[in-house]
Amino acid sequence: MFNILTPHSLNIKGNEDLIISGNVVYISKNITLNGNLIILKGGSLTLINSTLYFNNIEKQGYYLKVMPGGTLIVNSSIITGPKDKFYTIFIHHNTTFILYNSTIKNAGWKDQSNNGKYLWIGPAYTNDYSTFGHGLEINTTVTLFRNNILENIASIRFYSSNNIIEDNHIKNFRHEGLAFMPTSNNNTIRNNIIINASSLKRETYRIRFYPGNKNQKIYNNIIRRTVIGIAVSLIPPWTTGENFDIYNNSISEVFNALLARLKNSRIHDENYTLMASQGILIAASQNVIIEIWIQHTLKK
Fold first, then answer.
1. How far is 129 from 108, CA to CA, in rounded Å?
2. Cα separations in angstroms, 225 against 29, 89, 116, 124, 205
3. How far is C-alpha 161 from the geometric centre of its chain's CA atoms?
4. Partner residues linked to 270 by β-bridges
5. Is the whole-model pTM more than 0.90?
6. Which residues of 219-258 are buried (b: 16+ CB within 10 A; e: fewer)?
7. What is the pLDDT of residues 109-132, one digit of tens each?
8. Residue 59 CB neighbours (<10 A)
9. What pLDDT score does 6 carry?
């Protein structure tokens, strides 16, 4: 049985957490939270044409957690908070997660903005395998992740495999646009527009694969204005990315378009323009086919 809440504003008073243990549907509703939102095992939250606002007062603010066995469906809705006081979203394993035709803004405080070791040293020798606080972290295979706007987020991290990420607009991110951790394989990343890093003075990535990823398809994406367009495996422990198919991506206004350590992979029909440094840098790789690509560097 569903609890369908009628259209009006809901302000959770005080610093109380909102706990979802049953089936709750918000339709055309504005929800302001002064605490955390937790979806428990067996709980389900559906947002339709609604806005969820985390009213944070600290930089490391509130969180939305979907616990194992929980469900979060965000359809034509907005999740946001103050521009400089951040919340974070953490989707555990064995959950159901749908993000469709929606907007997530101002999430994540782990952008390393105050950490000197994350200044640009190119190529990318720094790493951060920590969890929680990056913005949007997904440990379950998404049911649907399509046609969304993701803005001013520190990082969007996938720990799960077999995801399709398509037709999204990712902009003004602060560290990683889309990042795939070592456990995240067999993904398809297509038809996304990923533009405008918040800073070009330190490492920012449009699409990043951590060491050991396998079986990835990356195609028809538009990437603009960042330090590194696509990066694969070029951090410790340097485990090679294997069986990548990278094609028909348009990358422009970057320091480096593609930096990778690859095996048994193919790069083809790429278009890289207006680079300050390399178009393609392949390091310590095996059996990589590169064909039919266009490169234009910035004039000095």
1. 15
2. 35, 26, 22, 17, 10
3. 14
4. 293
5. yes
6. bebbbbbbbbbbbbbbbeeebbbbbbebbebbbbbbbbbb
7. 998 766 655 555 555 556 788 999
8. 10
9. 46
